[in-house]
Known about the structure:
Elements: E1 7-10, H1 16-27, E2 31-36, H2 40-51, E3 57-61, H3 70-83, E4 89-94, H4 109-130, E5 134-143, H5 156-176, E6 182-188, H6 199-202, H7 204-212, H8 222-232, E7 244-247
Parallel strand pairs: 1-2, 1-4, 2-3, 4-5, 5-6, 6-7
Helix pairs in contact: 1-8, 4-5
Amino acid sequence: xxxxxxxxxxxxxxxxxxxxxxxxxxxxxxxxxxxxxxxxxxxxxxxxxxxxxxxxxxxxxxxxxxxxxxxxxxxxxxxxxxxxxxxxxxxxxxxxxxxxxxxxxxxxxxxxxxxxxxxxxxxxxxxxxxxxxxxxxxxxxxxxxxxxxxxxxxxxxxxxxxxxxxxxxxxxxxxxxxxxxxxxxxxxxxxxxxxxxxxxxxxxxxxxxxxxxxxxxxxxxxxxxxxxxxxxxxxxxxxxxxxxxxxxxxxxx
Length: 253
């Protein structure tokens, strides 16, 4: 990792957990490149929040479900680095994603394929495209889910993808070790955000059900996750590599 201000690229960094993580990383001293899917105003607000903390930030549009965009996106990242008089990012956080709640009996092939594009093919080939821009000694953090460890009905397709992400992370750690790059997975539990239509946040019954199976007795909040992202990318955690870290308050123990 460089001794100057690190640069972190976060996909889906304009809202929810991604934005919270970006803010906590900025407070930790990192400049931020974030991607957003379609809401430019939301992305601009996230950039302004980070800049108010005294850090540099920029937002780039990206559909992580369209691998044909990745080469151009890498070129845009390289251009930002040039403006900032840098040659590499120091960390990549593969955070962007969407949810799916459907039973195995009801999941369509189109829904399954969308999950593959966004949660498996996207992180795999975006990481591949960005590897030349990732500094030796840098970090990769992939977002998984508690649902890859425990099974809740209606989450099979989404959870399968996150299981694949966890395997991918171990291979990244193994193959990139010679460059000193560390790769880990962060698996949040149920968090009260607008993810999946804000179900955990807005559905009182679901919220209560999650709290009942969580050792700490409540659902998670964005501020429970952003600091964990920052901690896993901090200099003092460099010996953690190839690991799955769950931040769920103790769900389904």
